[in-house]
Amino acid sequence: MDKINSSEPEEISVKDIILKYQDGLRFLKSKIKIILLCGAVGSVVGVGYAIMKKPVYTATCTFVLDDNRGGGLGQYASLAAFAGIDIAGGTGGVFEGDNIMELYKSRNMIKQALLSSIVMPDGKKQLLIDRYVSVLNLKKRWKEKDHIETINFNPSADKFNRKQDSLIIDISSTIANKILNISKPDKKLNVVKVDIAFVDELFSKEFNDKLVATVNDFYIKTKTKKAQKNLDILKNQVDSVKGILNQSLGRVASSNDATPNANPLRSILNVPSQRKQVDVQASSSIYAELVKNLELAKISLRQEMPLIQVIDEPIYPLSKSTSNKILYIVGGFFLMVLASVFILIVWGTSKKSKEFKDA
Question: Key word Cell membrane present in the record (predicted)?
Answer without folding.
Answer: no
